[in-house]
Each structure stands twice: as structure tokens, then as C-alpha cells.
Amino acid sequence: MKSIGSLVLGIILTLTVPTTARRAAAMVAALGDQTQQAKELLEQARQALGGQRLDNVQSLSIDCKLQRAMGDDQVSGDARLEFLLPDKFMQTETINLPMGDATLTRIIVVNGDQTWEDSNTSGSGTIVIKKPSDDPRARQSRQNQLRNERARSLLSLLLKSPAEFEFAYAGEAQADDGSADVIDVKGPANFAARLFLDKKSHYPLMMSYKAVAPRIITRSFSNTVVNREQAEKHAADTEQHVKEAEQEAAKTPASQNESEYQVRFADYKAVDGVMLPHKITRAIDGKVNEELEVQKYKINPPMKPDRFEKKK
User: Fold this and answer.
1) Which fold has domain 32-304?
2) What is the pTM of this model?
3) Are 266 and 277 in contact, with CB atoms under 8 Å apart?
């Protein structure tokens, strides 16, 4: 004879299994609905941005005026963004620094699975450029960060992404200027973002995501030309200061170092039949950090793949 406990357990198992199965089936169905709804909304957005003309874009260059917060200072300059689909990207910046007539030129490149960066300075003053870390984990993290930045830009501007990305409808969001459909986007290398599409125009309004904000190490700089010995000492002191700051930051889990990014897109205008934003604003934790004012777009400019290879 079975005990009362065994009978009760048998009843619980009999009742629980179908209930769990039904819940699982309902979750799968809901996920399928969310995926289908996201697909439909993205197709509406593609049609609004240009339809077949948008699909025909294989390369894109963007010339911008740049304003950016750098510590307590505001810097300005020029930026050029170049895309060669499906997986090549180059960003070139020339920034006027708040010290004498010093300028900083930075190049950031994603070339398929490879990434590389370069920078140089000109003018008076002492400027220290931090070298990439030799730690393999840090290098891999930086590569993932750069590839994710490229993917976010490509998705926001042209609604194009690698095939392995997943999309799901996340609901509606209200704003002062109207409402938006929200789509969750997930992909490799911990890629996660939310894309906001205007309910009326279907244009991308904003992309939000979490990432580790750049660390600005503030040091004193000279506004006059210094001799080599002074420059080398200043460089050594600053490099040590950066290492100490990084060691302190490493004690905190990466998730706690992440900030909320919001990139907004506005002032859409037609360029060769494709609607593209001419003002891009980035905020970190609710504070505007960067503004790009687009001066010129070029759709399908000639670009050779070897342009994105690092010169030896």
C-alpha cells in the first residue's frame, strides 16, 4: 500500500507537469509573437527610411562637426565615419585640445574580426597617449567593445546587423515628443541594446545600452613647448597615474562600472532617397557627453577593403 505522502506527491507531480508544459508553451508562443512583431516593425522602419534604396547601401561615409566633454573641458573637432558592409568600419577624429594649439588625431578601425587603433598629437603642450593593455583579456574586451560600437551605429543608421542578432518587441515608450515602439536587440560578445522607433514616422529615435564609460584621467598640461626631458618625465608620471587608477577600477566588478548610454537621432533629411539623421547626441547616465552635427553623407562611395588594414 502506498503511503499518504506518496499519494500526495503523485497528485502534485500529475498536476504540475501539464501546468509547467502549458506555461513553457505559452512562453514560446509569446516569444514568437514578440520576434514576429519586431520583424514587422523593422520592416516598416526600413521602408520609411528608403526601402530598396536603403537595401542597396553597401558603403557609407559621414563627415561631422564634433563637440565632446573631456573631463571638465569641452572640446571640438571634426570626425569622419566610414562603413564598408558587412563588417568594416573606420572612425577618424581630429580634436582641438584645451591646451595651447594642441590637436589629437585618433583612428579606430573594425576590420572583420580584427580591430586596431592609432593616435598622434601635434602642436604645443604635453599630451600623453595611453598605450593598449598587454593583458589578453583586456585586449579581447576592447575588441568586443569596438565591434559592438560598430554594430550599434550600423543598426541605428541603416537598420542592418549581422544575421545572428536577435530581435524582440519590448513594448511602447512615451516621450515629450511622442511615443515609440521598443525593440530589444541581442547578439554575440554580450551585445544588448534597445532600439526606439517613432510610432508615426518609424524612424530610429534612440538607442540605449549599458557599457563602461571612458575614464578621463585629468592631469596638468603645459601650454608652452617643453624640453624633451620634461616631456618624458611628465609622460612617465601620467602613465603611473593611469596604472594606479586602472588598478583601483579593477577592484570593482565590471557590471558595477557600467553606465547607461542613450544615443538620440534627429533632423532626418533625404540623401539620395535615403532618410538619414543629421544630428546625433550621446548622453551617459543622463548627461550629454557628445554631439555630432553631420555636414555631409556619401552613399556608396568607392572604398577598398585594404583601406581598413593596419599599415605596418
Assistant:
1) outer membrane lipoprotein receptor (LolB), chain A (2.50.20)
2) 0.77
3) yes
